[in-house]
Amino acid sequence: MFFPDSGRLEIGDTLHPEARALNGRGDSVPAQVYWTSLDTAFVTVLDSATGATFAKAVGTGRLQARFGSLRSNPQNVFVFVRIDSASAVGAIRDTITVSAPDSLSDSLAVKTWSDTGGGGAPGRPVVYTAAIYPPGDSTVTFVPKTTVLTDAAGIAVARLQFIKGPRPDSVVVTAAVRRPNGTDVPGSPVSFVVEFRP
User: Fold this and answer.
1) Secondary structure (3-state) at 44
2) Which of 18, 46, 164, 193 fits as disulfide partner to 2, beta carbons 3.0 to 4.6 Å?
3) How far apart are the C-alpha atoms of 125 and 120, rounded to whole Å?
């Protein structure tokens, strides 16, 4: 069985799984595979012949493929609250003093908003990237890391740290919030500007 986007969906999305029947030697055989949801509170199979499955509620649902009397092991489908937008929380500009012991920016915070969930969307990845100006041999990194999961309130926080090299004038930080299918949510990417001082 194969699930697009690792079986991750948002409420209201439709999953189109794939499966093939195998003989005793492990070779594919022509067969009509039928699909069943074992957790209809979370996911509903709209068409048992194609496997088109609708995401109804946040949680983990299971799908099972069937060919004749043979049934596959149940496979998980993960349904998340739908993110309607993303935005910065707090300041979008900051200054790093390179001579300071930690050389860290203030928090670069992003919030994911969900009308469906009535607030923030927890457990969603926010990917931070940095563009250094002027380009050169300067090195910066993110603390704690480049990809941060949103907390219970739907907020992800990273800080930019100067590591080594010539002092840049500024760094433009972008924080991308994407749906499980890889598309950006409205408001993403969120941009921040971090300026550097001696």
Assistant:
1) strand
2) 18
3) 13
Q: Which CATH class is domain 85-197?
A: mainly beta
Q: Per-residue pLDDT tens, the chain, 198 aa: give them.
A: 789 889 999 999 999 999 888 777 777 778 899 999 999 999 999 999 999 999 999 999 999 999 888 889 999 999 999 999 999 999 999 999 888 888 899 999 999 998 776 678 889 999 999 999 998 888 999 999 999 999 999 999 999 999 999 999 999 999 999 999 899 999 999 999 999 999
Domains 4-80 and 85-197 alike in fold: yes
Q: What's 4-80's CATH class? A: mainly beta
Q: Where are the domains of the chain?
A: 4-80, 85-197
Query: Measured between alpha carbons, how far is 22 from 8 in angstroms, rounded to an integer?
Result: 26
Distance, CA of 154 to CA of 114 (rounded, Å): 9
> What pTM does this model have?
0.84
